[in-house]
């Protein structure tokens, strides 16, 4: 992919991942037999998105929102670093909603 | 007697005082975005004046009792000084009034206002890990 941040929603929050770390996006379907569905004799398929990462890993997200080429990034200060998830490199706004920009994929997904 | 204006805020049953000079705005009902995976003390993120703003729980920063509900009021405050000065939101239960505190009491970190003890907040060091 190109420069900038891929903005995704995960666990209700917006995260920005360096686009250069993302090799692709895949929709994954998994059949899950839910208790209610079992009684009705049906399987329920859950769909989710996974990012294929440049290093071979993958990452499940709730939604991919946009590729943000230009974000006004507010670096995370030493004071705030301990409050933010590990790996948070900066904060930005996208359409008025805060985005946590991650330095690398390893840190994003321990949330 | 030298006095300094402080914003008194309520944290549960306690009262804290923030230097008025460091306070930029008091916002009620700010739209908070919780951040999963954040450390204790971070209430969430918000937008303020076109910039992202981290909202910290003042009671937790001061080591007071844990909050059971989301703070109702955000006091947008400058923390730190010089090049390291930054704007954060401090979540509190309410903003009460601006009071003049005696400078001699401030050094102790506590003051009395109307006979009630008040925790005086040092916004230069607040949030810095000891």
Architecture overview:
The complex is a heterodimer of chains A (111) and B (130). By secondary structure, chain A is mostly beta strands. Chain A has a domain at 5-23 and 55-108. Chain A is 12% helix and 52% strand. Chain A contains three helices and nine strands; from the N terminus they run E-E-E-H-E-E-E-E-H-E-E-H. Chain B has a single domain (3-120), classed as OB fold (Dihydrolipoamide Acetyltransferase, E2P) (Beta Barrel), CATH 2.40.50. In chain B, 6% of the residues lie in helices and 52% in strands. Chain B contains two helices and ten strands. A five-stranded mixed β-sheet of chain B has the order 8-1-2-10-9. In chain B, a hairpin with a 2-residue loop joins strand 4 and strand 5 (51-57). The relative contact order of chain B is 0.28. Chains A and B meet through helix 2, strand 8 and strand 9 of A and strand 4 and strand 5 of B.
Total count of helical runs of at least 4 residues of chain A: 3
Secondary structure category of chain B: mainly beta
* Percent of residues in helices of chain A: 10-25%
Q: What oligomeric state is this?
A: heterodimer
Gyration radius of chain B, in Å: 14 Å
Low-confidence stretches of chain A: 37-42, 107-111
**Main β-sheet of chain B, in a few words?**
5 strands, mixed
- Count, helices of chain B: 2
The average pLDDT value of chain B, as a whole number, equals: 91
Strand content of chain A: over 45%
Percent strand of chain B? over 45%
The low-confidence runs of chain B, each spanning 5 or more residues with pLDDT under 50, are none
Tally of discrete structural domains of chain B: 1
- DSSP, total strands of chain A: 9
CATH topology of chain B: OB fold (Dihydrolipoamide Acetyltransferase, E2P)
Largest interface: A-B, 25 and 26 residues
Give the CATH H-level superfamily of chain B: CheA-289, Domain 4
**Largest sheet, spatial ordering of strands of chain A:** 6-1-2-9-8-7
């Amino acid at each position: 992919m190109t420069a900038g941040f891929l903005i995704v929603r995960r666990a209700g929050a917006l995260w920005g991942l360096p686009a250069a770390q993302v090799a692709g996006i895949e929709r994954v379907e998994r059949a899950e037999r839910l208790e209610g569905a079992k009684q009705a004799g049906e399987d329920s398929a859950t769909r989710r998105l996974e990012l294929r990462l440049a290093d071979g890993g993958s990452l499940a997200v709730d939604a991919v929102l946009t590729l943000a080429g230009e974000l006004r990034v507010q670096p995370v200060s030493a004071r705030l670093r301990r409050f933010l998830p590990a790996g948070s490199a900066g904060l930005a706004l996208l359409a008025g909603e805060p985005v946590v920009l991650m330095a690398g994929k390893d840190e994003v997904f321990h949330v | 007697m030298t006095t300094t204006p402080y914003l008194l805020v309520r944290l549960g049953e306690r009262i804290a005082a923030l230097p008025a000079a460091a306070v930029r705005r008091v916002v009620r009902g700010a739209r908070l975005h919780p951040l999963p995976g954040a450390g204790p003390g971070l209430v969430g993120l918000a937008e303020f004046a076109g910039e992202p703003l981290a909202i910290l729980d003042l009671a937790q920063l001061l080591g007071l009792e844990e909050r059971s509900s989301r703070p109702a009021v955000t006091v947008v405050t400058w923390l730190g000084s010089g090049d390291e000065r930054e704007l954060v939101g401090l979540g509190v239960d309410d903003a009460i009034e601006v009071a003049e505190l005696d400078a001699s009491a401030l050094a102790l970190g506590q003051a009395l206002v109307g006979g009630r003890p008040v925790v005086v907040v040092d916004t230069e060091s607040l949030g810095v890990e000891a």
